[in-house]
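User: My instructor asked us to take a sequence, write out its structure as tokens, and then describe one feature of it. I'm not sure where to start. Here is the sequence I was given:
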Amino acid sequence: MAGLKKILVPLIGDVRDRATLETAFRLAGQVKAHCEVVHIAPDPRTTLPYLGEGVTGAVIDDYLTAAQEASDRAAARAREAFDAARSSSGLAATDEPRADRLPSVRFQRCIGALVPTVSELARLADLVVFGRTCSDEPSLTDALEECLMAAGRPILLAPREAGASIGTRVCIAWDGSAEAANALSAGLPVLAGARAVTCLTIGEKAEAEPRLASVRAYLALHGVTAESHWLAPSGEPVGERLLAEAERRNADLVIMGGYGHSRLREFILGGATRHVLANAAIPVLIAH
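Assistant: Let's start with the prediction itself. The structure tokens for your sequence are:
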């Protein structure tokens, strides 16, 4: 398989950008990938109609100037976070990514609407890394879901604070679904370097054991030795149990399928995906 060679990191100039970048750069260094960091700023001209009729040219000019200054400040924060994270990671910055010079990182600015821009860029990336800002910024949450559902790309949700490691102790949430299988495939380049891999499933033991044996055998063909753990059904939410088990095992990465139910049903019922996205304190790799 081609492996993980290009990682996209969209930024909006948030104070937590550095933690996101440190997680992304650490992963890029481990799997020998290029990390494409893009600060995306909206075009203020697209919002001019919302100013209403009868607005003078002077007011419009002031509005556009203020919007540009705000965009420049956000871009400066993103660039500062990039420079700091790159310096601490030791990865080489490049203007022209090349397969024979990996790992590498690059910073770019882009003007456009966040969700469609991220979705378009994601189509030529192997993984998209989002920071915890998405829990507070609705447009980033929409971009994350668009990457999963429309662009069909796996995403990595970085924690609020970057950990000392990623992908050395991995928990895989396995239910046999297409979403879980896609997440597992996306995570194989990371699993290849893991020291401990545990497959977790929740269900009746008679069904769980052969399911876990099958996924262990699959991973073994890829050179990954895994153990498995069966969790009996209970009244606790699935996402909560998965995170508790990952924490108990001191995992530094969770791999899981995302939105096995419709997004509307997930929202109404409080599905496992939403719980994990909102509460995980470690990186989570998700695919649909």
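For the description part of your assignment, you could build on this observation: Residues 87 and 93 are 10 Å apart (CA to CA). Try explaining in your own words what that tells you about the chain.
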